[in-house]
Every structure is written in C-alpha cells, then in structure tokens.
Amino acid sequence: MAPAKVVKKESVYTIDCSGPASDGILDTAALENYLVTRIKVEGRTNNFGKNIAVSRSNNEIKVTVSPNIQFSKRYIKYLTKKFLKKSSLRDWLRVVASSKSAYEVRYYNVDQAADEE
Q: Do the domain assignments include residue 1?
C-alpha cells in the first residue's frame, strides 16, 4: 500500500503590537509597509506573487505563507527587530514569541532591573 500524501497547510504568523501601538510609540502601518518591502522570496524582494500575503487588522500584523515555499518564523522576528532598530525603538521594545506561530512586541521590564541594583 502506498503511503498517503501529506497535505501541507499554509502558515499564518502574527505579530501582536497592541501594547506599544496603543501607547502611540509603534506605528503598525509602517511596520507592515517595512515587511512588505523587505521580505524576500527566492532571494528577491517584492516577489510575493500568490505565495505570501501581509495584512494588518487593528494592532496585529498577519503574514500568510503558502506551503510551496520555504519560509521561517525566525525571519519575521529578524525583520521586526531590524525595523525597531531603524525606528530607534530597539532600546525600549523587544520581540517575544508568544505561541508557536505568533510574536509579540513588548516593553523591556525596567522595574525588575531597577530593583536588582
């Protein structure tokens, strides 16, 4: 008997920016635009086609990836960190994995560091 074919599902990665965006520090539209212009598919930028879709709803950005291309969740974290560095927000914000397919942009825990000193 032949093995059954495994049907791959499309991956959906989310970046939750609700904390900093509600405070007015982080612009989610600018982050979405940055991701659209910087994500590379097959070594080229702006080569999305039907393989990748980037969408924004309120303070959450979703990157939908079709199963026929190789794409890692880590690459989204890398690009988000580059955006924070470019926007001079890297000193106050960090990118943390909140689940298997989601990241969250959070503030550094400053109170805890001050108590230790």
A: no
Helix, strand, coil percentages, rounded to 5, for the chain: 30, 30, 40
What's the total number of domains in the chain?
Answer: 1
Specify the CATH number for the domain of residue 100: 3.30.1360.210
Q: What is the pTM of this model?
A: 0.84
Phi, psi of 81 (to 5 degrees): -65, -35
DSSP bridge pairs for 44: 41
47 token code pair: 């080569």
Identify whether the C-beta of residue 35 lies closer than 8 Å to the C-beta of residue 61: yes
Residue 2 lies in a domain: no
* Residue 85, amino acid: K
Tens digit of each residue's pLDDT (9 = 90 or more) over 37-58? 999 988 888 888 888 999 999 8
User: How many whole angstroms separate alpha carbon 97 and alpha carbon 116?
Assistant: 25
Single-letter residue type at 34: Y
pLDDT value, residue 115: 52
Distance CA 58, CA 14 (A): 12
